[in-house]
Amino acid sequence: MTIPAGTIDRRYSDGTAVPTPWTDVTAILDASQIFWVTTVRPDGRPHVTPLIAVRVDGRLYFSTGPEERKAVNLEANGACVLTTGSNSIEYGTDVVVEGIAAVVTDRDLLERVADAYRVKYGREWSFEVREGRFVHTDAGGQALVFGLTADTVFAFQKGNAFAQTRWRL
Known about the structure:
The protein is of the alpha+beta class.
């Protein structure tokens, strides 16, 4: 995937700030253990909840039970935002990934996503792939897997030089 250069928004950045490098953003996405997903309820109200996510081939993936609010919301409206970063105002970089989430059913891709979960989160997050879904190895519960196709990414750098960088994909 070719990533365009990030543009810095001078309205929300220090005068000396430079755009956050894309490699910094991907490193944050790969290292972050907790993400916040925002979906849209059928009545238009937002729904936000924490979850875990992995990045495979440049795309973010997360899973949820088919009856959970986020899955129900995404079935009706795939618009979604994944957010991660630091809870500090003094340091770190927050990343916001906006796009459309869709259920993934391709077995080979699901196997690679399951492998990424095990590598990133450990054995307690082991899944088998059955009939286009994740099945938790120990608990047996089923989950849908969503892939987020990003259209806009923001990085909010904090600390000595506040900077807001945007990528349109």
